[in-house]
Each structure stands twice: as C-alpha cells, then as structure tokens.
Amino acid sequence: MDTATHQSDEDILIQGLKSGNQSAFRKAVRLYTPGMLAVARFYLDHSAAEETVQDCWVTVIDAIQKFEGRSGLKTWLHRIVANRAKNHLRKAKREVSADFSETLDPELADRFAPNGRWATPPSLKINESAQALMENDALSDCLDQHLAALPETQRSALMLYEAHQHKSEDVCNILDVSASNLRVLLHRGRQKIFLMVETFQETGEC
Amino acid sequence: MLMCRDLARIASDYIDGELGPMDRVSVKMHLMMCGHCRTFIGNLRASVDLINAHSSQQVDEEFVRRIDERVTESLNARNSGNGNSD
Ligand SMILES: [Zn+2]
Prior knowledge:
The structure holds 2 protein chains of 2 kinds. Chain A is mainly α. Chain A has helices at residues 9-18, 22-43, 46-63, 73-92, 106-109, 130-134, 137-149, 152-163, 168-175, 179-203.
C-alpha cells in the first residue's frame, strides 16, 4: 500500500494520462498549455501556434505511453511542441528571425554618455515587492501590454526561463538557440520591462 | 576598467550568476562605487521578479475548452475502437 506514498503529483498525473483518464488530461491541459503556447509562439503566429498546441495534445494521448520520465513532463511536452512548430515552419519555408547582435536596448543605450557613464541614470529605486506591484491593476495591465509587444523570440525566452522556470540548457534545447543568444534574448526582454516599470513609476502612465 | 554601459550590457548575466569570476569581481567593485548602477541592477532585478510574478498563465479559457473537447473526442474514439469484449 505505501509504495504509492513516494509518488510525486507529477507521477500520479502521468499515470492518469497513460491510462487515458479524462480528468488527468483536463488537469494537464490547464497546467501545461500556457508554457506550450509560449514555445509555439517562438516559431509561429498566434493562430498557427494555437493549432499546433491543440494537435500536440491529441498526439500526447498515444505518445505518453512511451514517456519514460527521463526529462520532466513539462520539458517533454515543450519539446514535442517545438518539434511540431519547427516542422510547420519548414513546410511554410519560413525562418525565425531575431537580432542577437546588440545586447543593449537602443533606448537604454541612449542613456549613456560617450565616456560610458550614465547620462540619464535610473530615476527611482523600486522598493516594493513584485507581489505588491502586481496589486496595482494599471501596472499589471501595462505589463501585459508590454510583454505582448515584445518580439516573440524575447517573450518566449522570458516565459520559459522566468515564468516556467526552465533551466538554460532546456530553453536552448527547446527553442534551438545557442546559450549566448538566449542570454541576449533574456537581457533584451528584461530591459524593455525595466524601462516600462520606470516610466510607469515616474508618470503613473503606461 | 568597467564602465556603467559595460555593466548594463552584462547585468542579466550578473543577476543570473552566469558571469565568470573575473567579471563578477569587476561588477562587484563597480557597484561598490556607483549608486546609479546599484539602482539599475536593483530595478532590473525587480523587473525580473515582476515577470516571474506575472501570471503568464492567463490562457484563453475558450481555447482550453476546445482542447478539452478534442482530447475527449480522441479518448472516446480510442476507447470504443478497443472493443472491450471481456
Ligand atoms: Zn555605474
């Protein structure tokens, strides 16, 4: 009886999926779809990404039988989505375009003097916790808008690394980018959010 | 010597602990002397926390329901295809 006590929630969920349990699928769909969409959006536009994620869930019904748990369920699902999305791209003969050449956001780069010191330094120190900041609906909406406006590649990198807590190696693997290019994507995305928060704190406007 | 602009370029690597030991020391030395860069790093960190805190989980409920439907359809099709005759 107590062999089951050492099972993690994920193991139980995987068992449910393997036995084709409907409520296990409902749970997994809610848990993993946001991350899967972030992966798909790295490669595809909104509607193609949604379609790909939907198709993936249908293939998971059979594919889960072969899942051995060497990677976590999340990473496994994200790889499936990435592979499908890449195939989709190949068929459409498109490629992901991203600029990895400049690490500094142009707007931030303009704030340094020629000697490399700050000409327009950060104006205010953020003292509140993220939780406290998020309670401000206007700021939370503004964050939504700015995340949505990021280039897909930057947003997907941020979502996977930050919000979905993947390790760098996993993100590189899933998105097919080098470690140094991932660093550029993360840094560029973060700077945009930094600039947004600064403007918001200064002006109260988005 | 590391200037503010150089620091801004590698600030995320510093925050994530991805810098080599030499660069890490240079950043720390710079931060001891430069209040602007301390504020910058602090605010960048706060921005990262904010991205973390931001749910990102908000996926269109309608979309999730469509997935449920397709999954249920496929599960049912599979189960009836098995012909459970024992
Ligand atoms: Zn400085």
